[in-house]
């Protein structure tokens, strides 16, 4: 049985790899032989997929920010559709990555209507509340939508999709994270040292808009807390050089690491981070955090005035419970001074820290039970069985 999986960006590659591992496990258990072909990245390749195009570095947030990626995105989309036309799969799984996946899903609906399509981790239409047009398209070409957030499940169900809530895959992923003591011993962090994780970028635009304000705040914190040391796990190796240069320029006491993200998170006392999947990973490891996000000013203006987007929150922990459990500093509020102030409060105020940990506990209840990826894989393989 051939499954085609389409996703992009660093987080999509991670989620795709977790799903592929679960699909392989479930296929062995049910006696199905799988071939998995994908748009994705190195993690998905390592999990056993044949990668048609590497999309882990193709991605952006915003309108102007996405322009450099229009041609690479169209190229991989055309590549995927040409493959689907020549080698129709038994099933298609789409993971997030709205632009290309809307095109691929629409192609399947029009030209290969007998091939079932699953959408796992749908685009966050339920958050943006901008237009029902994309929602209608997703519902139209999706045979089963596997939701990871309760509110996502409710939204798409209300709009006519066949939805199963499976829970959030990070529940599975963070199970094998080391505890704090082991992580700190692995990284050589002394008991009295304050370990602060800095997560400025998984997209190139974030190096431009986020890194300077995050590193300036880190410089401020370093001057106030002499025992602080910064830990920077790389999302992509290509970012090492610009981050190394920035660390030197800002005079930070910092260590840059590849492949040690879980250890850094588990060891950290606190994090300053971009908005994204990492916010949930930190929350599941009880690390207080300040979330920062900035876009090009023109993009922000368009979103606010023309599209009239009503986004309640930017970070997943807040979206899960629809309340501000982690501070979010967005656009004009994302200044080094504001980041420093929010950081010092979480680092030095025990009551604020305890409230954050209590809120994390509430959030965790909304993410489902262990076995998320296996439940998603079972749903997908059941679609294969019913399509025969």
Structure write-up:
It is a single chain. The chain is α/β, with parallel strands linked by helices. It has two domains: 2-167 and 368-387, Glycogen Phosphorylase B (Rossmann fold); 175-365, Glycogen Phosphorylase B (Rossmann fold, 3-Layer(aba) Sandwich), CATH 3.40.50. 51% of the residues lie in helices and 16% in strands. The chain has 19 helices and 13 strands. The protein has helices at residues 9-30, 42-46, 70-86, 98-111, 125-128, 133-141, 150-158, 170-173, 180-187, 204-209, 211-224, 240-250, 261-267, 277-284, 297-306, 316-321, 336-348, 350-365, 372-387; strands spanning 2-6, 35-40, 50-54, 91-95, 117-120, 144-147, 163-165, 194-199, 228-233, 254-257, 270-274, 289-293, 328-330. It has a seven-stranded parallel β-sheet with strand order 3-2-1-4-5-6-7, with helices on both faces. A six-stranded parallel β-sheet has the order 10-9-8-11-12-13, with helices on both faces. The termini are close together. The mean pLDDT is 90.
> What fraction of the residues are assigned to beta strands by DSSP?
15-25%
Overall structural domain count: 2
Main β sheet profile: 7 strands, parallel
- What ranges have pLDDT less than 50 throughout 5 or more consecutive residues? none
Distance from N terminus to C terminus (CA atoms, Å) equals 10 Å
Kindly report the CATH topology of the largest domain.
Rossmann fold
Identify the strand order in the major beta sheet. 3-2-1-4-5-6-7
Classified by CATH, the class of the largest domain is Alpha Beta
| Helical content (DSSP H or I, runs of 4+) | 40-55%
Mean pLDDT: 90
Bulk shape: globular
In total, the number of strands is 13
Q: What Rg, in angstroms, do the CA atoms define?
A: 21 Å
Structural class from helices and strands?
alpha/beta
**Annotated CATH homologous superfamily of the largest domain:** Glycogen Phosphorylase B
CATH architecture name of the largest domain: 3-Layer(aba) Sandwich
């Amino acid at each position: 049985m051939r499954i085609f999986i389409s996703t992009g960006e660093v987080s999509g590659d991670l989620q795709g790899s977790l799903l592929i591992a679960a699909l392989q496990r479930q296929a062995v258990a049910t006696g199905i032989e799988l071939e998995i072909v994908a748009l994705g990245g190195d993690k998905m390749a390592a999990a056993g997929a044949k990668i048609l195009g590497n999309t882990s570095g193709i991605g952006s947030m915003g309108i102007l920010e996405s322009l450099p990626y229009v041609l690479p995105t169209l190229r991989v989309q055309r590549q995927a559709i040409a493959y689907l036309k020549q080698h129709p799969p038994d099933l298609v799984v789409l993971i997030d990555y709205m632009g290309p996946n809307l095109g691929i899903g629409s192609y399947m609906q029009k030209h290969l209507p007998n091939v079932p399509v699953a959408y796992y981790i749908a685009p966050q239409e339920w958050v943006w509340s901008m237009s029902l047009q994309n929602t209608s398209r997703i519902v139209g070409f999706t045979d089963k939508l596997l939701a990871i957030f309760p509110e996502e499940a409710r939204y798409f169900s209300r709009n006519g999709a066949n939805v199963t809530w499976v829970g959030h895959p990070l529940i599975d992923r963070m199970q094998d994270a080391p505890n704090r003591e082991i992580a700190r011993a692995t990284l050589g962090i002394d008991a009295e040292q304050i370990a602060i994780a800095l997560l400025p970028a998984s997209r190139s635009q974030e190096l431009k808009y986020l890194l300077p304000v995050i590193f300036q705040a880190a410089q401020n914190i370093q001057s106030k807390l002499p025992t602080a040391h910064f830990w920077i796990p790389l999302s992509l190796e290509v970012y090492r050089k610009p981050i190394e240069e920035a660390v030197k320029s800002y005079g930070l006491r910092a260590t840059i690491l590849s492949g040690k993200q879980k250890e850094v998170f588990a060891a950290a006392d606190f994090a300053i981070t971009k908005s994204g999947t990492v916010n949930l990973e930190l929350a599941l490891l009880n690390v207080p955090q300040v979330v920062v996000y900035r876009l090009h000013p023109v993009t922000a203006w368009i979103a606010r005035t023309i599209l009239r987007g009503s986004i309640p929150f930017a970070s997943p922990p807040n979206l899960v419970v629809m309340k501000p459990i982690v501070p979010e500093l967005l656009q004009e509020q994302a200044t080094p001074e504001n980041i420093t102030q929010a950081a010092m409060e979480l680092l030095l105020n025990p009551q604020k820290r305890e409230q954050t940990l209590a809120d994390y506990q509430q959030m965790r209840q909304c993410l489902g039970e262990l076995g998320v990826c296996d439940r998603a894989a079972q749903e997908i393989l059941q679609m294969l069985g019913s399509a025969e």
